[in-house]
């Protein structure tokens, strides 16, 4: 057994464009960007819509979706993640539009499958910063 301390997991560094997303997650809510021209919804890092519009607004999302794709991680990329092995990284297709990459928690890794209905749960990782994770619905 090593006396080396386990490093902290990295957490988001909100900027002006993404701060509303992380703050909403800290409050237990999911917000997405929406195009004011065509209504398309997407993750917070986009600065423009596929239609070319740059007028975006923040909208509330339900936090429900389905697993679009996933992988099970068996070897931690960093010592901070070892205690969680194995864990699932998934792309979740949100019912409100858009896709998010996150973890699926609250079930065995081998229970996750494409099409699994999920709902968002939130983990506060810093002052006013939360991250969405998903659990079977």
Strand order of the largest sheet: 6-5-4-7-8
Percent range for β-strand residues: 35-45%
User: Any idea how many domains?
Assistant: 1
Q: Which residues form runs of ≥5 with pLDDT under 50?
A: none
Whole-number radius of gyration? 16 Å
Mean pLDDT, to the nearest integer, reads 93
Assign a percent range to the helix content: under 10%
Q: Describe the global form.
A: globular
Please write the string of helix (H) and strand (E) elements: HEEEEEEEE
Tell me about the biggest sheet? 5 strands, antiparallel
Q: Look at the helices and sheets and give the structural class.
A: mainly beta
| Beta strand count | 8
- What is the first-to-last residue Cα distance? 38 Å
Q: Treating each run of at least 4 consecutive H or I residues as one helix, how many helices?
A: 1
